[in-house]
Specification:
It is built from 5 helices and no strands. By secondary structure, the protein is mainly alpha-helical. The protein starts with 13 loop residues before the first helix and ends with a helix. The structure holds zinc ion (ZN).
Length: 114
Amino acid sequence: MTRQWNVNPELLCDNHLLGEYNEIHKLLGGVVNHPHGLAILRGQQDKNNVDLSTVSKRYERLQAEMARRGFKHDAVLVHRPVFEHGYETQISENRNLEDLWERCDKCRERIENE
Ligand SMILES: [Zn+2]
């Protein structure tokens, strides 16, 4: 499931950091390449899992954190036509933080040591 966590990237464990980054790529690339891509994108927006008005900035923040941790990140977000299909969504950072805290020991450790 695609999820734009939108929490401070420093709080994400390596897996969730790379996961969010890759999922954003997959979602936006998938819209262009998949016959039902737009419906999938709409579904993710309806579930408040992604916000195309902030996803570019988010992507840059994830890349910056990846660079800080020494990960390679030479990809560029170039699926611009997709952004015409964005509409405002309500991603809850607090709920996502709780989710990560519950489901991932490594994220929890980072959140508690913040
Ligand atoms: Zn995690």
